[in-house]
Design a protein that fits this description.
This protein is α/β, with parallel strands linked by helices and 319 residues long. Helix content is 25%, strand content 27%. The protein contains eight helices and 20 strands. The protein has a seven-stranded mixed sheet with strand order 5-2-1-6-7-9-10. The protein has a five-stranded antiparallel sheet with strand order 19-18-13-12-20. The chain has a four-stranded antiparallel sheet with strand order 14-17-16-15, covered by helices on one side. The protein is elongated and about 75 Å long. The N and C termini lie far apart (65 Å). The relative contact order is 0.11.
């Protein structure tokens, strides 16, 4: 039996997704000698500085926290070296310079929320649903010079159901990811790692960064495409479109809970049929039945509550 290596970990991450993994490392009694996270940011109406989810968790557990603005700065590099870590773990952070990822003896590995080499990039959980995938997963890999291209250590698959939202898949992968990182650390601890080089097999799909433009619904698309996009952005950052309600200005509206109904119809794409408790938007192949919607300046509302106080014109349409 081989002797276990003495592992000293620096953890790098920022959002809630990363907290689950850091929590798992603590619960398994791994020695986390430092936590690197994003600088505090202004948030909310008062624009008060808010610490990242990872920083908040780390401080509760008395872990040393570093928040560099520049990952190449001499000051940060010296601070990182002084932690004397021999393994770095990255979960939902940012691209690291070579001087950082090559520092520890046992390497730097990343947890990515896709089955690499598919969905390299910033938003793999969202794009898996938007593109209608039925299976996705997680991968741990050693970081190299490019984005999400390093040698694979472990991967794990999970199903995506037809009604799964990105919020639900995020939470599922968050829990599974924590477990996969622990398995990966155990392999490194026992010097039992074997890696697989990523190879290009067929078409590679990319997890592009989400922005206002690629979150907008195009009602000329078919029912399945629109439905997948809405659930692939629910509850964050949220799909949106314009409502033309025969008023002076178009209203940007956000779409949350929806269901898709296949049907033959003669309605124009984007046309709306509303009743006292139902809002249908027609498209190719059927219609989207909207369950939750948010008007500008208002809170998110279920459709029955919305229809109690808002009137859609007879010629209203989504654009």
């Amino acid at each position: 039996m081989t002797n276990k290596r003495d592992i000293r970990i620096v953890f790098m991450g920022t959002p809630d997704f990363a907290v689950a993994t850091l929590k798992g490392l603590i619960e398994h009694n791994y020695n986390v000698v430092g936590v690197i996270t994003a600088p505090d940011r202004k948030a909310g109406r008062g624009q008060k500085l808010k610490a990242s989810a990872v920083k908040q968790f780390a401080q509760k557990h008395n872990l040393k926290v570093l928040q560099p603005k520049n990952l190449k700065s001499e000051t940060f590099i010296k601070e990182l070296e002084s932690l004397n870590a021999n393994l770095q773990i990255v979960v939902a952070f940012r691209m690291l310079p070579k001087v950082v990822w090559q520092m520890p003896e046992f390497g730097t590995f990343n947890l990515h929320a896709s089955l690499l080499p598919q969905y390299r990039g910033a938003a793999p959980i969202h794009w898996a649903i938007i593109n209608g995938e039925t299976v996705t997963g997680l991968t741990t890999f050693f970081i190299d010079e490019k984005i999400d291209t390093g040698a694979i250590i472990l991967s794990e698959r999970t199903k995506i159901n037809d009604n799964t939202t990105v919020g639900e898949l995020h939470d599922n992968l968050m829990a599974l990811g924590s477990q996969l990182v622990i398995k990966t650390v155990k392999l490194i601890e026992n010097d039992e790692v074997t890696t697989t080089i990523q190879t290009k097999t067929g078409e590679l799909k990319t997890a592009y960064k989400l922005n206002r433009d690629n979150c907008k619904i195009d009602w000329s698309q078919n029912l399945k495409t629109i439905y997948n996009k809405i659930r692939g952005l629910n509850p964050f950052p949220v799909a949106w479109c314009y409502l033309d309600n025969n008023e002076e200005e178009l209203l940007p509206v956000k779409l949350y809970g929806v269901e898709k109904i296949k049907s033959d119809h003669n309605h124009n794409s984007g046309s709306i049929i509303s009743t006292k408790d139902e809002l249908k938007v027609y498209c190719e192949g059927g219609f989207i039945n909207i369950k939750e919607l948010q008007l500008p300046g208002k809170r998110k509302m279920d459709i029955k509550s919305l229809l109690n106080g808002f009137n859609f014109s007879d010629s209203a349409k989504m654009l």
